[in-house]
Amino acid sequence: MDEALPKQPVFRFAPSPNGQLHLGHALSAILNHDMAQAKNGRFLLRIEDIDISRCTPEYEAAILDDLGWLGLDWERPVRRQSEHLDLYRGALGKLIDRGLVYPSFLTRGEIKARVAAFEAQGKTWPRDPDGAPVYPGDERSLPESERQRRFTRGTQHAWRLDMAKAVAKITEPLTWQEIGAGPQGETGTVVADPACWGDVILSRSDAPSSYHLAVTLDDARQGITHVVRGRDLFHATSVHRLLQHLLDLPQPLYHHHRLIPGEDGRKLSKSNRDTGIAAFRQAGKTPADIRAMIGL
Ligand code: GLU
């Protein structure tokens, strides 16, 4: 009987407390909240505070304050990623055991130098959809004895997904349902292309889980049915769909929404205090003004 009941929709807004909320976040939060209300669904807030070097309790408090001021209400308790590191470690461990993830010892600086040397010859190094150079990949075949030697020496390392092996596990076309739109207007059934990201990092020495791994596991654990977020994360969905496939997790619907450009036409940044919600509050704007400013 129960199986025939339609699932109650579950939405989430998932900010990282590494800066102030800006108009783009307000759009995301309000859309999630309003869509949940319209569908008689639940609205959850998740604090994505894995990166302890950039996230602070002060930013988290300011986020809650801004969201409350905007008139939003969310379920308690709020989920904080930093309180669920075992979940991420467990999933990473499973992928390591299956040989789908390998340790990577190259530092960001070393990768950068490698790419620069290559491009100095007039050639172009492949980039991922965010424009970052794709990881070279040579540590994929590092002998086990050499890995162990470096572990013993205590060399810092990240864990990377062996993209070719992971993609080989896909048995039927990997797609998602887009109920918003991608940067090129993609909508409906979208074919995922995780390979264009190369061997993505799933865990670093200074953060036990990458954004990709934590967001995928949390969406599943929280029973999220609708992922509503900015279009800048459209291509990341390919990696999330691959991880869902590998870890046997359900797939939500995805709604990527428009971005709010800054006055100079560029993407809003958390460090740009002028477009922060707090600055508008101080300048006497009301929540209704904010809605109007973001076209709601
Ligand atoms: N924490 C991410 C951010 O602040 C959003 C994650 C998501 O919505 O999937 O950009």
Concise synopsis of the structure shown:
The chain has a single domain, classed as Rossmann fold, CATH 3.40.50. Helices cover 35% and strands 14% of the residues.
Bound molecules: glutamic acid
CATH class: Alpha Beta
Shape: globular
Major β-sheet profile: 3 strands, parallel
The CATH architecture name reads: 3-Layer(aba) Sandwich
Mean pLDDT: 94
What name does CATH use for the topology? Rossmann fold
Description:
The protein has 296 residues and is an alpha/beta fold. It has one domain: Rossmann fold. The chain contains ten helices and ten strands. The chain has helices at residues 23-38, 57-69, 85-97, 108-119, 144-153, 163-168, 211-221, 236-246, 277-282, 287-293, and strands spanning 10-13, 42-47, 79-80, 101-104, 158-161, 175-178, 188-191, 201-203, 226-230, 253-257. It has a three-stranded parallel beta sheet with strand order 1-2-3. The protein has a three-stranded antiparallel beta sheet with strand order 4-5-8. Helix 7 (211-221) packs across helix 8 (236-246).
What key attributes describe this structure?
single chain; 296 residues; alpha/beta; Rossmann fold; three-stranded parallel beta sheet; three-stranded antiparallel beta sheet; 10 strands; 35% helix; globular; binds glutamic acid
Fold topology:
Layout: E1 10-13, H1 23-38, E2 42-47, H2 57-69, E3 79-80, H3 85-97, E4 101-104, H4 108-119, H5 144-153, E5 158-161, H6 163-168, E6 175-178, E7 188-191, E8 201-203, H7 211-221, E9 226-230, H8 236-246, E10 253-257, H9 277-282, H10 287-293
Parallel strand pairs: 1-2, 2-3, 9-10
Antiparallel strand pairs: 4-5, 5-8, 6-7
